[in-house]
Amino acid sequence: MTDPQTASLIHARGLTKRFGDFTAVDAVDFDVAPAEAFGFLGPNGAGKTSTMRMIGGVSPVTEGTLTVRGLDPRTHGPEIRARLGVVPQQDTLDTELTVRENLVLYGRYFGLSRAECNKRADELLDFAQLTERQNDEVEPLSGGMKRRLTIARSLINQPDLLLLDEPTTGLDPQARHLLWDRLYRLKQRGVTLVLTTHYMDEAEQLCDRLVVMDKAKIVAEGSPRQLIDRYSTREVAELRFAPDVHEHLDGQLDGLADRVERLADRVLLYADDGEAVAVAAHERGLKPEAVLVRRSTLEDVFLRLTGRSLIE
Amino acid sequence: MAGISRVLEHRLVQYRRTFRSSVFTSFLSPLLFLTAMGLGLGGYVDRSGTAALGGLTYLEFLAPGLLAATVMQSAAFEATFPIIGGLNWQRTFHAMYATPLSPRDIALGNLVWMAIRVAMIATVFTAIIVLFGAAHSPLVILGIPVAVLTGMSFAAPISAFSATQRTPNQFNVIFRFGITPLFLFSGTFFPIETLPSYLQPIAWLSPLWHGVDLTRGIVLGTLADRPVQMLIHVIVLAVIVTVSSWATIVTIERRLVKG
């Protein structure tokens, strides 16, 4: 029999974090296996960052069990951090120093020799596509470049576990895709990725498995595909009505689809055949201003589980 | 120790970028003060004889006190903005805390850096005292370690306070109601015995007065006349530095754990 605490890289049971009377993380259970990409999906304030900070050994566990590689962060914080890569939500780069200086100094924090730091910095600059900017100060770099540098920096100690707290929040789509590509390469090299996000597309792109968090609790767990199959239909028809029509839709949509969600600005009809539902709505005499039929996403899963949107 | 030296290395790399302007400033300040107060005002004071200052010229009297007062100001500056920046603006201390470095390494690394900065400023200042011919004896060199002790008796408690702040708003209060009055009333420019007797106990509470009196005693070689008093100065300053270094570790750790 294998002990779950050693088989999984991260093992949490009843993990709780309280700040005074406020419970940020409420008795959550999860396991992360080596080489897997594991995500925490949820809105701001769901407890994702608090969970990540406990895993990272920088925020004490209030209650419950947490082990990282079988070690307890309460007693082995520095040992855990020595083999961990951390990409925090807010950049912590020294913006007055150069790109290369940031990498080398960070390597020195891990006790690496200066020669080794410089050698690794060369490789990481190439990986992060920042070689040409290596002698520039960090301050004028774009948000995407700073994030790439932060990721490069987190790899200087060659960790096999990388914690990414909202890695692409605030970036433009092009920068996000470039970053996802880099993270995907790391995953292929066997690096375990643990990330938080409130973007469902990010979770779908990167995560093998994820948990949905809401109000300090885990409300669902599975692969993106499993979660969609379990909590949503194959397709969704989105109908957008004129505001005065939208307010008086009561009852007119009943029975059209497996499930109906009325949002402030549109109506979501969940069915395996979205096109057929849109046609049926027309036949009832409903005249939406716009119709969009699409596949279900994790956004729909979240809406189903919590009754709210991920990004409000 | 290894962790402290890594934090120190970061500060050194940072300092390399501002090295030139910083050296210029550390020359300029003593130069201006010793010229204006020591030569200008001093020339005036010395006309009425040197008996009031125990046979010293005003410049000789002023120089060690001004050394202590100057390092106090530099130390206070080093203990405010760089600390709040590392915790709240650049957040470089959080980056360090994500590695095997501990809050203790981060706190002590920064305090050691402040001591090095104070030593650098004190060395430049002492060189200028010598150039001005205001050195009473070769003992002037001992002013440097005493200045480091005095500077740290400000750097350490102010660092502990800075780590509790998220904005620099309170720093003005420290400078305006703390540093500036101490600069003026701790025996730097005139012996505190000149103050009304009811104000003198206030000067005793000032770490700067202990620093000024100690620096003067050592640099002017009058130490042997008042050994007990000198020992008390050293103890007071050393206790302040020790207790508030520990407080800095605590406040920095609290702030880092909060995120």
Give a description of the structure.
The complex is a heterodimer of chains A (312) and B (259). With 312 residues, chain A is an alpha/beta fold. Chain A has two domains: 4-228, P-loop containing nucleotide triphosphate hydrolases (Rossmann fold), CATH 3.40.50; 233-295, Alpha-Beta Plaits (2-Layer Sandwich). In chain A, 37% of the residues lie in helices and 26% in strands. Chain A has helices spanning 4-7, 48-55, 73-82, 99-109, 114-127, 143-154, 173-188, 200-206, 224-231, 243-247, 274-283, 298-306, and strands at 10-19, 22-32, 37-41, 63-68, 84-87, 161-165, 192-197, 209-214, 217-222, 235-240, 259-262, 267-271, 290-295. In chain A, strands 5-6-7-3-8-9 form a six-stranded mixed sheet, sandwiched between helices. In chain A, helix 4 (99-109) crosses helix 5 (114-127). Chain A is globular, with a radius of gyration of 22 Å. The model of chain A has no long low-confidence stretch (mean pLDDT 93). With 259 residues, chain B is mostly helical. Chain B has one domain (2-258). In chain B, 76% of the residues lie in helices and 0% in strands. Chain B is elongated. Chain B starts with a helix and ends with a helix. The mean pLDDT of chain B is 93. The chains are: A alpha/beta (312), B mainly alpha (259). Chains A and B meet through helix 3 and helix 4 of A and helix 1 and helix 4 of B.
